[in-house]
Amino acid sequence: MSGLLTHLADVVWLVPALPLLAGLFNGARVLLGRTCGDASEPLTARLSALTALGGLLLLLAIDALAFRDGVPGHRVFSVWFGTPEWQGTFSFLLDGLSLSVATVTALIGWLVARFSANYLHREPGFHRFFIVLSLFLSGIQFVLLAGNALLAFVGWEMCGVASFLLIGYAWQRPLATGNALFAFATNRAGDAGFLFGLGLAAFWLGGFEWPLFTEEVRLPMVDARILAIGFVIAALVKSAQLPFTPWIARALEGPTPSSAIFYGAVLIHAGVYLMLRLSPLLEQVPDLMLALAVAGAVTAAYAWLVGLVQTDVKSALIYATVFQVGLMFFAIGQGWTTLATVHLCLHAAWRTWHFLLAPSWLQITRARPAPPPFWLARSRLLYTAALQRFWLDRLAMILVVSPTESFARDSRRLEANFIDRALGEVGKGEAVDAGRPLVRADGLPGRALAAVAGYLQQIENRLLLQGRGGVAEHLLQRLGAYLQTIEHLLEQPRYLMMAVMATFVVIL
Questions:
Q1: How far, in Å, CA of 174 to CA of 197, rounded?
Q2: Residue 408: in which H helix or E strand, if any?
Q3: Where would a tag sit more exposed on the chain, N or C end, judged by fewer CB atoms within 10 A?
Q4: Domain termination residue (choose one: 83, 115, 147)
């Protein structure tokens, strides 16, 4: 490996770090009030685009040198934390899979950032969009370039947070916030599967590094199956495969650029990438690979049927995307990982163009959407099922979203009826005494503090402020009388001479 390639590989962490720094800088500008008016938009957009371009150029340079000298491979930069049994490291894996997918993703991210500058001009959330977009670009590069599952999970969660924020971009609209909640609740199931896999990897493999998931590290069949199931669930949810497909259509509530880069091109392929990265582990569990193939084939059939009855551009495109991703899962289940990788990269680029063109699609085509095929329209039951998306939205609402909302309502009632009353709530205190209306308190701590203050006030009143007859006044008067008597005696000549003589005795 040449020295230049080694040097570039040592700074590959800049690829996810640059967009993150741009997001932090733009966020600081918003907090400081430096983003008022149209004149502030170019700096935000250019900074986001330039950092995305910087990551792309760095990856292209590494690609060119890796093509000549070989890929850098697994590189460990530092250790986060760990125990004698396992460690969490800050590492990157630069191989053919990660470099190819990360380069395509960086190119798409840069193009979407450039496109968004004009598309979102004068939007109320212009700066907020670019902050979240930078967060996403950083997170997805962590997922693709991470050398271990733990760092990949950090990027996985960054992408999830960015997705939630952009689905609810128009937060004033209940539909947008409801769809954001739907996607958020569904994706938590995938996060739980990922965490389950991380825990088992630390226990059984002694770490999280991706090289530990290769053929050289053999696990018992049962252990390998259980370990892989957690990651498979995470991949199925993130890539909207059955039975987790309904959330992806609701995610289109966000702006068109976010629909393009998130659900049309990049984020929906994160599950495919995770399965490609874990393909050596999956090959140890043939029945799980068969399940992946079946899930991909069934999802592709479902998306094909539902896509035939869609009448708006975005919905038709998203089900076409789910169809293609289902084919990728089918290919992975068959062991065709190279085909799935090529399919992923080509589809991501192709679908980005489709989604960015979606706002102009009706003007370009100047025609109505094609009607459903005759054989589908003739079958009333199948047509209704496709039109209702096989009622999976309703099922997901009952099984996932409604319990989440019920839990949130119960938590709110607990907070309002117990926690707020116990601890107090700012601005809602009541007068503790009708005679002192300005002394207000709420909650057990506030009332206890008010009671202590009341007792101290009583003590103060009794000792100092009671006037004639107070204990403190009597003590002070008696002390004053004693001092006056001593002063009167010292003024007598005989006692004064005795005091002078005593002073000389002490001195001599």
A1: 35
A2: helix 402-414
A3: C
A4: 147
Helix (H, G, I), strand (E, B) or coil at 426: coil
Q: Quick: pLDDT tens for 41-73.
A: 889 889 999 999 999 999 999 988 888 888 888
Which residue, among 315, 317, 312, has the nearest Cα to 265 in the 3D structure? 317
Please, where are the H alpha helices in 32-148?
Answer: 41-69, 96-119, 126-145
Tokens of 399: 């099984």
The H or E element containing residue 81 is strand 73-82
Reported residue count of the chain is 508
Collapsed DSSP state (helix, strand, coil) of residue 153 = helix
Contact 270, 159 (CB under 8 A): yes
User: Among 147, 162, 197, which residue terminates a domain?
Assistant: 147
Query: C-alpha angle 409/415/418, rounded to 5°?
Result: 125
Q: In degrees rounded to 5, what are phi and psi of residue 455? A: -60, -45
Q: Are the C-beta atoms of 376 and 382 separated by less than 8 Å?
A: yes
SS3 of 434, please?
coil
Residue 494 belongs to domain spanning: 475-508
The residue type found at 229 is I
149-199 pLDDT, tens per residue? 899 999 999 998 898 888 888 888 888 888 888 888 888 888 899 999 988
Query: Cα(51)–Cα(407) distance, rounded to whole angstroms?
Result: 41
Question: What token pair was written down for 72?
Answer: 């850098």
Domain assignment present for residue 248? The answer is no
For residue 380, tell me if it sits in a domain: no
Q: What residues form DSSP beta bridges with 436?
A: 433
Q: Does residue 154 fall inside a structural domain?
A: no
> How far apart, in whole angstroms, are the C-alpha atoms of residue 133 and residue 141?
12
Residues whose CB falls within 8 Å of the CB of residue 23, separated by 6 or more in sequence, listed in order:
48, 130, 131, 132, 133, 134, 135, 138
Please tell me the chain's helix, strand, coil percentages from 3-state DSSP, rounded to the nearest 5.
75, 5, 20
Q: Report if residue 105 sits inside a domain.
A: yes
Structure tokens, 113: 């950032």
